[in-house]
Design a protein that fits this description.
Blueprint: H1 2-45, E1 47-52, E2 55-60, H2 64-84, H3 90-101, H4 106-117, H5 120-126, E3 130-141, E4 147-158, E5 162-176, E6 187-204
Antiparallel strand pairs: 1-2, 3-4, 4-5, 5-6
Helix pairs in contact: 2-3
Length: 205
């Protein structure tokens, strides 16, 4: 009788231990599966697929701070190329300047209005002058917001009889704004001023 009770008691302990082991194992397995699922979901959210030329290209999401220096320099470069690269065609000038003004505040619009009042654009068209700008370097200070920048560039004015190279130095500040089709970098140039714009070389054609 006592032997049978001992056998029943030991069997119960064995079954209870096995049940506890099974439950603990199930919990551990469920927790690991949940962790891996969340990790996989996070990795999939960091991937973006872009269709280009009928092909799906994979892109990876990243924090803006990682790419901010590159985006800031490219934003400044794009603005200067649009604002200063002009041909003797009224529609080309208006199209370039309109695109440039989406990247800057009223300080750029004031500069455009001043040049227009001085007859600069009319002179380009009348003299069949093409103007190109090549940005040599852009220095951006990302330690203090809004971000200060200084742009060093070279202008080339091609006239019928000569080619003129000019040194161009400007500075301003960059402020974060919402991204859009007109402003893909999500930055806006503020308090933009021209520090230097002088002839450095004239070459007869």
């Amino acid at each position: 009788m006592f032997t049978q009770m001992k056998n029943i008691d030991s069997a119960f302990r064995l079954v209870r231990g096995f049940a506890l082991l099974t439950v603990c194992g199930s919990l551990l397995l469920s927790g690991f599966a949940l962790y891996r699922s969340l990790r996989l979901a996070q990795q999939l959210q960091d991937r973006v697929y872009v269709l280009a030329g009928g092909q799906a290209l994979e892109a990876f999401a990243a924090d803006r701070d990682e790419h901010l220096p590159v985006e800031a320099r490219h934003h400044v470069k794009t603005f200067h190329e649009l604002f200063f690269s002009l041909d003797p065609d009224e529609q080309v000038i208006e199209r370039h300047v309109a695109r440039a003004l989406y990247l800057a505040d009223a300080s750029a619009k004031r500069e455009y209005d001043n040049l227009q009042e001085q007859g600069f654009y009319t002179g380009l068209i009348a003299g069949n002058i093409s103007q190109r700008v090549e940005v040599d370097s852009v220095a951006v200070d990302l330690k203090v917001y809004p971000y200060f920048f200084r742009c060093y560039a070279t202008q080339r004015l091609v006239r019928a009889t000569s080619t003129v190279w000019r040194s161009l130095v400007t500075e301003g500040y960059l402020r974060s704004v919402s991204r859009s089709d007109h402003n893909p970098h999500g930055l806006l140039i503020e308090r933009w001023v021209t520090l230097e714009n002088r002839d450095v070389k004239v070459e007869r054609r």
